[in-house]
Amino acid sequence: MGKSGIIYCLSRKKVEEIAQTLSVNGIKALPYHAGLEANVRAKTQDDFLMEEIDVIVATIAFGMGIDKPDVRFVIHHDIPKSLEGYYQETGRAGRDGREGRCCTFYAYKDIEKLEKFMKGKPVAEQEIGKQLLFETVGYAETSVCRRKYLLHYFGEVYEQENCGSCDNCLHPKTQTEAQDEVAMMLEVVQAVKEKHATEHIINVLIGKDDKAVKDYGHNKLELFAEGMDKDAKFWMALIRQSLLAGFLFKDVDNYGLLKLTDKGKAFIENPHSFKVTQDHSYENTESDDDEEGGGGGAAADETLFAMLKDLRKQMAKQKSLPPFVIFQDPSLEEMAINYPITMDEMKNITGVGTGKAAKYGKPFIDMIKKYVEENEIERAQDLVVKSIVNKSGLKVYIIQNIDRKISLDDMATAKGISVSELISEIESIVGSGTKIDLNYYINEMIDPDKQQEVFDYFRTADSDSSEACLEELGDTDYTLDEIRLMRVKFMSELGN
After folding, report:
1. Which residue in 64, 84, 238, 243 is deepest, having the highest Cβ count within 10 Å?
2. What mean pLDDT do residues 327-347 have?
3. Is 331 within 8 Å of 350 (Cβ atoms)?
């Protein structure tokens, strides 16, 4: 690679994971965050400046004092909390006036995650944080020139319509005429006396009869629901682009209220052509990035998938086990994507691991190998990025403390997570083929007769769904966490 770059993440855990992943794939990278010793951070910074390493993976703790002119790229693995932070961090690329590329990964669920982090903080701090996040969402989802949007946010005017370098300008979206819609939206801002923010204006336009709209009597306005033929995303894009065009301004010192400019008032009196582009939609994005492994976006080989399911059914019948104990459907689907033909490759399939690969893997490997040879399939293994085993994270902590028979409640408290979240990690460990013994905890929490009842259910169940089990056995006798613990015991004892 040879080019210097910075990758920003919001959590220390993610920083460590990405730095390790890059290292095992031959990229000289080191982590940098406030949890490292001061001398380690100083050496990492020096190594970066002296080009001993190419990439720093960092939290925002890194970069404030960096004066390296030839940083060629800045990647935001997680969406920044504010446009101020984004502007400062991206500004570290290409300071010598040469190549400087910036890439930000964005999914709306990241915003929801950041909103959850704000809960519990003082109300005023939450309001400010939400407003900053709202602006970040606007920047991420906008389809107009990003340079124009960013400079407008900081009070500057960028006259050119196409900067020639951002993704939206290089790949412009189709524009539609919106003269009537702009006039309607501006009239709504005027009708509510310029005393409301974006969400309220949109609710009036689409006819959403929520409490605030009712309380202010805005559901009785002549313009109420006049824009219901368009969705909220359209109106959001229209308002953002009207801000950029100078028809509106946002009173940031007063809860982001939308107010008309002289130019906006003139547009109401004398409307003229105005083209808009629909914002990008990121509502339904990829699966949670906390998932390990997975088949990515590739399509499974349906023929092989069916063959693997038949093989699983035969093995399950021979061993008098439910099929899902041997391998679950997502594991078979990943096999039908990645075509594992060695034991090492099988161990890397999600939900398999060393234990299950050794116990059940060989017939599946043999079938896949034969299928690949007969159909002359070219596998993409050499193109797959090597993954790392998280040897020092939460999972090892859990396994070690279960061996020491530490209470799950104590483990959860020590790690600052809920017992339910801890059980999710344990499910992941067992799903990967590791055998664990939770009897010391389960025997204290769940009556032996109830344990047997859950075991008997899973022996004959069509699926391993804990929710389905709870529905069958009744939520008056069990909690979902109890069922999940028994499922872990069942899978560990019979499947691993």
Report:
1. 238
2. 86
3. yes
